[in-house]
C-alpha cells in the first residue's frame, strides 16, 4: 500500500486532532488546572498559590479518596446553613461528614461560596495570613493547620 501526499496529510491532521482533544481532556481532568481556571476569574485570584497549597494539603496532593471519588478538593464538610453545590455526603472512617460534588469545578465553586459567605478578605498578602484567617474562621481544627499550609506554599 502506498500513500500519496493527500493520504499523509489526512493522517497527520487526524493525529493532530487526536492530540488536541486528548490535551483538552487532560486539562479538564487535572485538579490544579481546574482550580486555577476558576480562581483566576474570581476576586480571590491573588490567593491562587495559597488556595492550591490548601487543596494539596487537604487532598494529599490530589491522591485522597475525597479528591478522586468524592470530587472534594478542599476537605469541605457538610454545611449546616449556607447554600452549597454538594450532591451528597461522604462519611469518612474517622466519623467526619464531607460534601460530595458532581465534579471538581463544583467543588471549587463551592469553596468560593464558602469564602463569600464569610466575607473573606482580599487584602491578605502572605500564605501565613491567608491560612491564619482560614483557621480563625473555623475552617480546620488541626492546631498545626497554619504551619502545614505554609510548608506546602513554600515547597
Q: Can you characterise this structure?
A:
By secondary structure, the chain is mostly helical. A two-stranded antiparallel ribbon has the order 1-2. The longest helix has 24 residues. The relative contact order is 0.11.
Topology of helices and strands:
Layout: H1 5-28, H2 31-39, H3 48-59, H4 65-68, E1 88-91, E2 97-100, H5 104-117, H6 127-136, H7 145-154
Outline of the structure:
This protein has helices spanning 5-28, 31-39, 48-59, 65-68, 104-117, 127-136, 145-154; strands at residues 88-91, 97-100.
Instruction: Tell me roughly what share of residues is in helical segments.
Output: 40-55%
By helix and strand content, what is the structural category?
mainly alpha
Main sheet summary:
2 strands, antiparallel
> Which strand order do you get reading across the main beta sheet?
1-2
Low-pLDDT parts are 20-28
Number of strands: 2
Strand content: 5-15%
Rounded mean pLDDT score: 88
The helix/strand series, from N terminus to C terminus, equals: HHHHEEHHH
* Number of distinct helices: 7
Distance between the termini: 55 Å
Radius of gyration computed on alpha carbons: 20 Å
Task: List descriptors.
5% strand, mainly alpha
